[in-house]
Amino acid sequence: MSPELLAAIAGGTGVMMLAAAVAALTVKKLISAIIITGFVSLSASVLFFLMNAPDVAITEASIGAAASTVIFLWGRGRIGGDDQ
Amino acid sequence: MIRNIAGLIITAAAAAVLFAMAPGLDVPEELHGPAGYYVENGLEETGSVNLVTAIVVAYRGMDTLGEVVVLFSASTAVVLILTLIPMATGPSRPSPVVELTARVLPGAISLFGIYVVTHGHLSPGGGFPGGAVVASSFLLVLLGTTGMPGSSRLLTAVESLAGISFGLMGFWGAMILGQFLNSTVIPGGTPGTLVSAGLIPLISLAIGAKVASELSGVFASYRKKGGEA
Amino acid sequence: MNYTAVFYWSLAVTAMGLVLTGIWGVLTRRNVLRIALAFTLADTGVNLLLVWTGFLPGRGAPIMDGTVSSVVDPLPQALVLTSIVIGVAVAALFVVVGVLASRKSGSADVRRMKELKW
Questions:
Q1: Positions in chain C whose pLDDT score sits under 70
Q2: Chain B with chain C: Cβ pairs closer than 8 A
């Protein structure tokens, strides 16, 4: 991959991740925050692949985006209510 | 309001600390530290094509053993605390799409997970991601039904057996070669084939079984009502 | 413009930004599940930063099957593999203890959880 393409993908993904991270902490509904956090983990998996770390990318995708999101969703189911 | 301002000030201080540690403005060119040794000698000494698996299982096996202990204690604590929290309502019946998917997909997903575990020394993967994928297939089965999950005693037994066998394999290396978790106690075949790299595939299998059964036990314990163990 | 340097440093800035967003979230949010989410974001940022320290642009992945001639540093990747799994275990414990505390004190607001002292 050419350096311009790598810089464009990494820069675009980085800006998107930072905006999503701030959004996950400021939206009103808790379910939106949990799903946005899962999306940040998935984008981190893309960044790990760009850094030539395939083991870490597979692990982050399967654990951070799947198991972690499920744990938070179950916790939200037992608390209920949406807050800041 | 005070909380927000104080939070911003502390975050700005942390940002100053982080950016002060940035090394310089040019891109490095050489590997530094013990990485050079691992890259040069990793393939000949352990026989595993995947260097990261060789480091996790063979060179830094003690760290992996500690991590297995941390994972065990955290999952046990989660299951114990979950018996104290009663669930407000029972689980609702899943939609037909989820039910159909939960009958068709888990076989393929767990087959992929077992492939990732057993080929940990040949291609990217290993015990940890493979175990997580197998636990995800168990989660899919759990989401497609409303009843209680299968026997959680079997999951606990598999988890304990996998943990014990990891320790026993380490002691086997200590008895024969005088070094804990030395992976060359079994003669390795040619690197690049499935049967190679000594003890590494067996240890990956133990780690994969342990992670899969632990995460599956945590998912299954969310389904039980409070008060049962 | 040196696009390789832009690529290299944008990765580091993303990782540091995630860590700082996580720290800010832990300090200023009120709901206990939001604090757990901020902690997970900071954990992801730290893992990105650790793998970034071993990354050299232009080299291949550390799989020595003869297709690449020079590889990136495999040691931070091994440590981050462990760290990701521990991170999800800690997040599970965080969520479960937070739910228990919110049941005991009646609301999910951390400012109400003052009676939990001994």
A1: 115-118
A2: 121
pTM: 0.89
CB C18 within 8 A of CB C44: yes
- What residues contact A63, with CB distance under 8 A and at least 6 apart? B128, B129, B132, C84, C85, C88
Structure tokens at B65: 């053993």
- Residue B227: predicted pLDDT: 42
Instruction: Say how many CA atoms lie within 13 Å of B8 toward its Cβ.
Output: 4
Rg (CA), chain A: 15
Write the burial class of residue B33 (CB in 10 Å: 0-12 exposed, 13-18 middle, 19+ buried): exposed
Instruction: Tell me the chain A residues in contact with residue B132 when contact means C-beta distances shorter than 8 Å.
Output: 59, 62-63, 66-67
Is residue B224 less than 8 Å (CB to CB) from chain C?
A: no
Whether the CB of A12 is below 8 Å from some CB of chain C: the reply is: no
The answer to whether C80 touches A56, Cβ cutoff 8 Å, is yes
Query: Are B53 and B201 in contact, with CB atoms under 8 Å apart?
Result: no
Residue B60 main-chain phi, psi, to 5 deg: -115, 50
Residues 6+ apart with CB under 8 A from B154: none
Report d(CA B5, CA C28) in Å as an integer.
9
A71 or B33, which is more confident = A71
CB B67 within 8 A of CB C82: yes
